[in-house]
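Example record for the data management plan.
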Amino acid sequence: IRPTYIYGPLNYNPLESWFFDRIVKDRPIPIPGNGFHITQLGHVKDLATAMAAVLGNEKAIGQVYNVSGERYVTFDGLAKACAIAAGKSLDSLQLIHYDPKQFDFGKRKAFPMRVQHFFADVHKAMQDLNWKPEFDLISGLKDSFQNDYLARKLDQVDVDFSTDDEIIKAE
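Corresponding structural encoding:
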């Protein structure tokens, strides 16, 4: 099983929280490049369902499956989807595009995703495993926002935005 970016409650890489942190605090969202890098996210529950569908499935023996959501999204589109999931108006969303090569962040992570296109076709998994993602991006992000971000009170955590501030100051 080869997932792309995994999101959803208690996933190992809470990348959507990075966006939610900025959105709930009405902060600008620094996005590397022009915002048009294409990526793909798969909900953790959909990943688990696909993994379970492999068990005892003769078609799956020796096969490799890409598992993710069915649709791709740009970095800007992901920021907007996170805002919608958090119940924020898109009019209040401020995206700041920057050239990551103009900064030396050291070991600090300025953005939670690779600054490149990163997506995969999931149709083989859908066909062989009789699997279909339950969550589209918005419903999955709403699930993550309600059942992880707010449930764990992450909206009340102090976040270090110093890297963001460095980017914003330079723009």
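Summary line stored alongside the record: The longest strand covers residues 29-32.
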